[in-house]
Each structure stands twice: as structure tokens, then as C-alpha cells.
Write a structure and sequence with these properties.
two-stranded antiparallel sheet, 2 strands, about 70% helix
């Protein structure tokens, strides 16, 4: 159970994106990753005349939102395990922003949204931690 509290869930979409971006090539081009992310892989009929086309990019953003929700739920309490989890979230954010700024295959809107969600996770955790420290100091 403590592993589930310690595991940085925002690492899941980052790792999946790394697998998609690298895809066997050391450095994919932006065009190649955009093609991988924008190709429909699932079509779901939603009405008589319409269907919902899901791309890997859409699915990855959905996965990142679910992981962000899990991270928000984990960060509600302060304990030694959560402090370690905070540190791992900061590490995930730093790795993500470095990948976004340095490697061309990571300069996509999908990865930017994942980086933004990772930033939201870090900021929310630090806000909660500072609120806890202020309330315990009073």
C-alpha cells in the first residue's frame, strides 16, 4: 500500500510519451511524433451519423488527467511518505521540462499539456505543504 502512495503517478504519461516519441529511434522528428499522436487508433460510434475518433494523443492526455486526479487525492495528507512523493513529483516535472526544452520530439502540444499537469501537481503539493506548515506553526 505504501508503494501506491509513494509512486509518482504523473510518471506514467511521461513514460508512455517517451516510448511513443522514441519508438525505436534515438531522436524522432517532431513530424514523426505528431503523426504517431494524431493517427486514429480507436473509433467509437456515438450516434447514428457520428463516431468518436480517438488518437494516441487524446488517450495520453486523458491518462494524464486521471493520473493528476490520483496525485491530487494522494496529496491531501502530510506524512513522511507524502514528502518523498512530493520530491518524486518535482523530479518528474524537472525531467519533463528538460525533455520539452531540449529534444525536438517532445515539442508537441500533447507533451506540453503533460508538463503543465505535472507543474500543477508540484504547485498543488507545495501549496498544501506550506498551508500545513503555517497551520502547525500557529
Amino acid at each position: 500500500m505504501s508503494f501506491l502512495k509513494l509512486f509518482p503517478w504523473m510518471a506514467v504519461p511521461v513514460v508512455i510519451y517517451n516510448i511513443l516519441a522514441l519508438g525505436g529511434l534515438a531522436f524522432s522528428s517532431v513530424e514523426a511524433i505528431r503523426l504517431r499522436l494524431d493517427t486514429d487508433f480507436l473509433t467509437i460510434p456515438v450516434s447514428l451519423n457520428a463516431s468518436w475518433n480517438v488518437t494516441p494523443g487524446h488517450a495520453l492526455i486523458c491518462c494524464a488527467l486521471i493520473m493528476l486526479f490520483i496525485e491530487f487525492m494522494k496529496s491531501r495528507s502530510i506524512s513522511s511518505i507524502n514528502v518523498m512523493s512530493h520530491a518524486s513529483s518535482i523530479f518528474i516535472f524537472v525531467v519533463s521540462i528538460v525533455e520539452f526544452l531540449i529534444f525536438p520530439a517532445f515539442a508537441t502540444s500533447v507533451f506540453f499539456l503533460i508538463v503543465l499537469m505535472s507543474l500543477m501537481d508540484v504547485v498543488s503539493r507545495l501549496t498544501l505543504l506550506s498551508a500545513f506548515l503555517q497551520s502547525s506553526g500557529e
